[in-house]
C-alpha cells in the first residue's frame, strides 16, 4: 500500500511511549510528551477567532459527525438504479466537532464555527508517519499565509489519534516529521468524519486523499479525491479557491478553464460569451 506505516515511527523521541494498532494489525509505538494533560485548549485562541467560547469535550467523545446534516444530504440524494448518489458539492458540509493538534497543543475544532466567517480548505490524508502525506501537509503549511490573506482556514484530517499527530509534529522534517504547522490536524479516530465526507476506505479503515473547499455559508463548492499514491497540488487548490471567490463576488460571471486572478472571465450567456471567445 502506498501509505503503509514504517516499522519505527518515533524512535528518536525521548518522551513516554504509547502504542496503537494500525489498519494492518501491526502495533505502532508512538511518543506521548510529558504533561500532555495540560495541553488542551480551544481553537478560538488562534488570532482569527472562531466566534465561540472555549469548550472542552471528554476524551471519550473524540469525533462526532452531525447525523442531522448527513440525513439532510440523503433527502437530497439522487437514486441511480440500486445506488444512491450523494452530491456533496452544492450541499452543506457535514458538521463535526473533534480534537486536533495545533501549536503542539490539543484543541477542539468545530467545522460550523467558520460559517459566516471564513472559507475552509478541508483535506483528508491516509495516515501519519507515511510518505506522500508529509509532502502535502508541509506544502499547505508553508503556503498558509496565501490562504490566510483571502480569509481561508486550512484543516487536515486523518484517522490517527491526537497523540500520533503530536508525535509527528514533534518529529524533525528531515526525519520524515512535520515540524510546526500553521493549521490544525484533526483526529478522526472514530472514522465518522471520513465516512460522512465519502472518503473512507472501509476495509482498510483509512481515508482517501479527499479535498473539499467550503464557502462561508458552509456549502461545499469543490471536491477532489485522489487515490493513496497521488499527492495534491497547493497551486491548483489556491487557484480553484480564488475562482470560487471571484464568481461569488461577481455572480453574473463564470471562470473558464485555468482562470487565474486578473484574467478575463466570461458571461454565461450565448451572446455575451462571444466577447470572451473572440478575445482568445
Automatic annotation (TrEMBL):
GO terms for biological process: cell redox homeostasis; cellular response to stress; hydrogen peroxide catabolic process; response to oxidative stress. It holds the Pfam family AhpC-TSA. It is an enzyme of class 1 (oxidoreductase). Residues 258-280 are annotated as: Disordered. Its EC number is 1.11.1.24. It catalyses: a hydroperoxide + [thioredoxin]-dithiol = an alcohol + [thioredoxin]-disulfide + H2O. Residues 87-246 form the Thioredoxin domain. One of its GO terms (molecular function) is thioredoxin peroxidase activity. The keyword Disulfide bond applies. CDD domains: PRX_Typ2cys (cd03015). Keywords: Antioxidant, Disulfide bond, Oxidoreductase, Peroxidase, Redox-active center. InterPro entries: AhpC/TSA, Peroxiredoxin, Peroxiredoxin_C, Thioredoxin-like_sf, Thioredoxin_domain. The keyword Ion transport does not apply. Residues 261-274 have a biased composition (Basic and acidic residues). Belongs to the peroxiredoxin family. AhpC/Prx1 subfamily. Thiol-specific peroxidase that catalyzes the reduction of hydrogen peroxide and organic hydroperoxides to water and alcohols, respectively. Plays a role in cell protection against oxidative stress by detoxifying peroxides. May be an antioxidant enzyme particularly in the developing shoot and photosynthesizing leaf. This is 2-Cys peroxiredoxin BAS1, chloroplastic. It comes from Zingiber officinale (Ginger).
Amino acid at each position: 500500500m502506498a501509505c503503509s506505516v514504517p516499522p519505527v515511527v518515533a524512535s528518536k523521541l525521548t518522551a513516554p511511549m504509547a502504542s496503537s494498532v494500525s489498519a494492518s494489525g501491526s502495533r505502532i509505538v508512538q511518543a506521548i510528551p510529558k504533561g500532555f494533560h495540560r495541553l488542551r485548549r480551544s481553537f478560538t485562541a488562534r488570532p482569527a477567532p472562531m466566534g465561540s467560547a472555549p469548550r472542552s469535550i471528554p476524551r471519550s467523545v473524540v469525533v462526532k459527525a452531525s447525523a442531522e446534516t448527513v440525513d439532510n444530504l440523503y433527502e437530497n440524494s439522487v437514486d441511480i438504479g440500486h445506488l444512491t448518489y450523494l452530491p456533496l458539492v452544492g450541499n452543506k458540509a457535514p458538521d463535526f466537532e473533534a480534537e486536533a493538534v495545533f501549536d503542539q497543543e490539543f484543541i477542539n475544532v468545530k467545522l460550523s464555527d467558520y460559517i459566516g466567517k471564513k472559507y475552509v480548505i478541508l483535506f483528508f490524508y491516509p495516515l501519519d508517519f507515511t510518505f506522500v502525506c508529509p509532502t502535502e501537509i508541509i506544502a499547505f503549511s508553508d503556503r498558509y499565509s496565501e490562504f490566510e490573506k483571502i480569509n481561508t482556514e486550512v484543516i487536515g484530517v486523518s484517522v490517527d489519534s491526537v497523540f500520533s499527530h503530536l508525535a509527528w509534529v514533534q518529529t524533525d522534517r528531515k526525519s520524515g516529521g512535520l515540524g510546526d504547522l500553521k493549521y490544525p490536524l484533526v483526529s478522526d479516530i472514530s472514522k465518522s468524519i471520513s465516512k460522512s465526507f465519502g472518503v473512507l476506505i472501509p476495509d482498510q479503515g483509512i481515508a482517501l486523499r479527499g479535498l473539499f473547499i467550503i464557502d462561508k455559508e458552509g456549502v461545499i463548492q469543490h471536491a477532489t479525491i485522489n487515490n493513496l499514491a497521488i499527492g495534491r497540488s497547493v497551486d491548483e487548490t489556491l487557484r480553484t479557491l480564488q475562482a470560487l471567490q471571484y464568481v461569488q463576488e461577481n455572480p453574473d460571471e463564470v471562470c473558464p478553464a485555468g482562470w487565474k486572478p486578473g484574467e478575463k472571465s466570461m458571461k454565461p450567456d450565448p451572446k455575451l460569451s462571444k466577447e470572451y471567445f473572440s478575445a482568445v
